[in-house]
Amino acid sequence: MENKKTIETWQKSILKECESRLNRNVTNIEKQFITTRGGFLALEMIEDTVKALKGKELESYLNSESNEN
After folding, report:
1. Angle formed by the axes of helices 40-52 and 28-35, to 10°?
2. Can you tell me the distance from the alpha carbon of 8 to that of 53, in angstroms, rounded to the nearest whole number?
3. How would DSSP label each residue in 10-28?
4. pLDDT single digits (tens) 29-56
5. pLDDT at 44
């Protein structure tokens, strides 16, 4: 159960960083991209990528698995 709390906290932190870098709220699709990952390695990779991108590049990354692309 401790891991679940850690993962949820980490996901929230990543979402907050995304919103800061995008200057807007994330969409449901963008949120789902992050919250469907529960592994530490996956979240670490997402966090590193989010911190390296801004604007349209970050938007493209967060929507990269969307069928709406």
Report:
1. 140
2. 22
3. HHHHHHHHHHHHHTSPPPH
4. 999 999 999 999 999 999 999 999 999 9
5. 97
Tokens standing for residue 33:
């991209």
Using alpha carbons, select from 34, 20, 24, 36 the residue that is nearest to residue 62.
34
Report the predicted TM-score, pTM, of the whole model to 2 decimal places: 0.92
- Please give the structure tokens belonging to residue 6: 């850690």
Place of tokens 């929507």: 63
- Segment (H or E) for 38: none
> What is the distance between the terminal CA atoms of the chain, rounded to a whole angstrom?
35
Q: Report the Cα 52 to chain-centroid distance in Å.
A: 12
pLDDT confidence band for 1 (50 / 70 / 90): low
